User: Which sequence fits this backbone?
């Protein structure tokens, strides 16, 4: 139980900072519903589960080396993905209570696209492997991995539920504005990521 709790704390801590994945979860919850936001969060939790399993196998250092060698590609992919999600969500517009929101953002697509964004997000990778260095030396490592998934999932449940509760109290205009604002933040994060990657490429290490 101690290992499970420790892993849950780690998963929650890594998931909680509001970054690209958090904004995507917020935007999809506002534009659609809590199910779309939670499916997005579960995609992120799945990535965290995979990273923790890699750490347990003692491959964390190799993964970090690979990430550093491919930092430009990963950063570019992450930035482009954020731009694509922001533009796509902006075009689709905010969800309205009179439409079938879940048909516009299928849960399977929300889940898989979140995995794609999580895998390519360098910040998530750095934070996770920094937090999971102790995994290979833990005798209860499997429990830690399960705990990471549960802790990460708990955060996404909280976030999507809170945003969905606020969404239910918004009128159509406020809902549309809130969804557009979330899309704009995601767009700015994508632009910032691409500019940072371009700056590193031009200036060197």
Assistant:
């Amino acid at each position: 139980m101690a290992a499970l709790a420790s892993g849950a704390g780690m998963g929650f801590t890594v998931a909680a900072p509001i970054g690209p994945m958090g904004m995507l979860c917020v935007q999809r919850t506002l534009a659609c519903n809590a199910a779309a936001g939670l499916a997005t969060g579960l995609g992120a939790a799945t990535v965290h589960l995979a990273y923790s399993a890699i750490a347990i196998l003692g491959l964390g250092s190799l993964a970090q080396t690979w990430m550093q060698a491919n930092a430009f590609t990963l950063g570019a992919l992450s930035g482009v993905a954020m731009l694509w999600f922001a533009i796509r969500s902006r075009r689709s517009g905010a969800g309205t209570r009179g439409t079938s929101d879940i048909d516009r953002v299928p849960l399977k697509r929300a889940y898989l696209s979140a995995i794609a964004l999580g895998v390519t997000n360098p910040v998530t990778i750095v934070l996770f492997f920094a937090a999971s260095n102790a995994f290979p030396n833990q005798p209860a490592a499997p429990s830690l991995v399960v705990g990471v998934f549960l802790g990460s999932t708990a955060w996404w449940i909280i976030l999507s539920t809170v945003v969905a509760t606020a969404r239910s109290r918004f009128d159509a205009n406020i809902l549309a504005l809130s969804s557009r604002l979330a899309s704009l933040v995601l767009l700015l994060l994508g632009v910032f990521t691409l500019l940072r990657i371009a700056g590193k490429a031009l200036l060197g290490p």
About this structure: Residues 2-203 form one domain. The chain has one domain: 2-203. The mean pLDDT is 77.
